[in-house]
Each structure stands twice: as structure tokens, then as C-alpha cells.
Amino acid sequence: MTARGDRRRLGELAGLFLRLGTTAFGGPAAHIAVMEREVVHRRRWISREKFLDLLGATNLIPGPNSTEMAIHIGYLRAGWPGLLVAGACFILPATLIVGALAAAYVRYGAMPQVQGLLWGAKPVVIAVVAQALWSLGRTALRSGWLILIAAASLAAALAGANELVILAAAGVAAAAASAGKAGRVSAGALFAAAPAAAAPFTLTGLLLFFLKVGSVLFGSGYVLVAFLRADLVVRWHWLTESQLLDAVAAGQITPGPVFTTATFIGYVLGGWRGACLATAGIFLPAFVFVAASGPLLPRLRASRLAGAFLDGINAASLALMAAVTFWLARLALSDLWSIGIAVIAALLLFRWRASSAWILPAGALLGLLLRR
Fold this sequence. Notes:
This protein is mainly alpha-helical and 372 residues long. The chain has one domain (96-370). 78% of the residues lie in helices and 0% in strands. The protein contains 16 helices and no strands.
């Protein structure tokens, strides 16, 4: 391809993913649906079969699925430059929007009007995560073994076990069951790693934390909340439960990747430097994994043991989601009004499949009216 053709393709990728990063609401599933419509049906860049192959590939590596889809599409369309352009353009608009929200939150968060908005948004966040948990669980928990692994993982999470230990033990247990050995997950493995003592905040620590999360997080972006709460709230005390819920709400009501919750947290903890480091930390592994995993994916997909290991990790991820939803609900659902908002949001989500993109703002406005 000529240099002019390369520039044209890069320009097309930049235009598409800048627009999606600015306008794509609704979470990873909605983002992927929009991408499929744009690159398969409208632009015909790739076939539907290839798109489905890419979707399967994103489920075999950790990180944000919709962002990894953008990176895969960029690589197929324009090679290594396309990989960087597509991913960066999808992430950048959401990062700037969430960063601006975080700046306003830090400056005006104590104002009664802002507190009312956040008070109304938090119960909706609980309903949104619960709906995602139900939907994902129906797909991921396909056997008695996976249900048992999820139950054991939930018990371990509620008991305070380390989330990485839970994920690893669940993967090993599922692989052992698939191999016909019906391996037992020892209580010592699931309940290992007592909570660490509080640690002082540093920008380096913030970067390393989000690099870790971006490198190991399988499943839905909502599993992110479990990792955030475990370290930033419980172990290190860098955030309060209320600040965590506010950060999740910010990631929900804005377009683009849900993982920009990290941008909000980074700004609250360390200003714009913290926001940039947290964003880079959580998204950088996605670029590395997509670039490195291409030759390995056919082998992984064909391996029964590798597939079972990932099934176990997904089951444990759902358990972590359930545990953190329980913990955060105790804070968000503090009175009859907040419980009512959560119930209405749940009905809209479960019964009528309404979009969280408008339920969250509606909840925030209702909170403003009720808390005036």
C-alpha cells in the first residue's frame, strides 16, 4: 500500500474512533455492537466472521474488551500505526470528559446540588451492576462446577481473601475439573492473603496499581470495581466508599470505555498527573496484549484446558462483582428514597431493557430534586 493510502486509512480510523469515543454510551456490549455496525455493515472493512473471531480473541486476554476490539480493528486496517491510532482515539475523548468531570467534582463536590446529583446516581449504579451481573452470569455459569466455583469465590471474597488469589484458584479448579480430575480448591488457597495495612499514596504506587489491574482483569469492566475497592478503599485507604461510587458513576454516565473510571480516581488522588498515570496504567496492557497475542490465540482457543481455565476465571470474576455490589449497596441504599430509585432503575433495566445512558442522568436529576 502507498504512503498516501496508509495516511488515508489512519485518518479513517482516527475519525471513526474519535467519534465513537465521544458518543458511544452504554458500556462494552453497546460499544462492540456499534463497532460491528460501522466496520462490518457500513464500511465493510472486515467480514462478520472475522469480527466474531476478534470478539472471541478479546475474551481470551485481560483488559477492556471494547478498547481491545478497537485496537484489533486498527491493526487489521492499518498495521502497527493503526493499532495505536484506533486505540488512542477511542480512549482520548472519554479520558478528557471524565477528567473534566473529576476536576469539577474536586472543586464543587461538597456543594449541596452536586451531592444531590451523586446521591441519586449511586442507587442506579447498583442496579446497573446487578443487571450486568445477571446477564453475564446466565452466559458464564454454564455448568454445576462453574456455579460451585463461583459460590466458593463469593464466600472467599466476602471473607476478605485477595482477589488475585481467588481468580487464580478458580481458574486452576476449572481446568482440573475439565481434565477429569475434579480438583479441589483448598480453603487455604481461596482464603489466603490477609488484607494489607494502609499504605501512603504515591504517584508511582498509583501507576503500578492500575498497571496490575489492566494486566489481570478478565470479564466485564464492572469487575474493575472489585479491584478498586479491595486495594484503594479497604487495604490502602486512599479512597472512601462514597468516592469509589462517585467514580463508578462518572465512568457510567460518560461515553467511551468504562475503564476511564481510573481517570476520575487518578485526578481525585493526584490531579492531572494522577489522571494521566492512572489512565496510562490501566490501558497500556491492552495494547501490549493485543500486539503479542495474535499468534497464540488459535492455540488457546483450541485448548480445552485453556478454555476451562478462562471459564473458571470468569466465574470468579462474577463472584467478585457480586461481593462488591453487596458492599457498595449498603452505602448507596441508605433510605427509602434511594431504595426506591434503585428498584425503579432495576425494573427499567431488567424488564424493559432500558439504556443506562439515560437512566443514570435521570437518577441524578431525581436525586437533585429530592435533596434540595
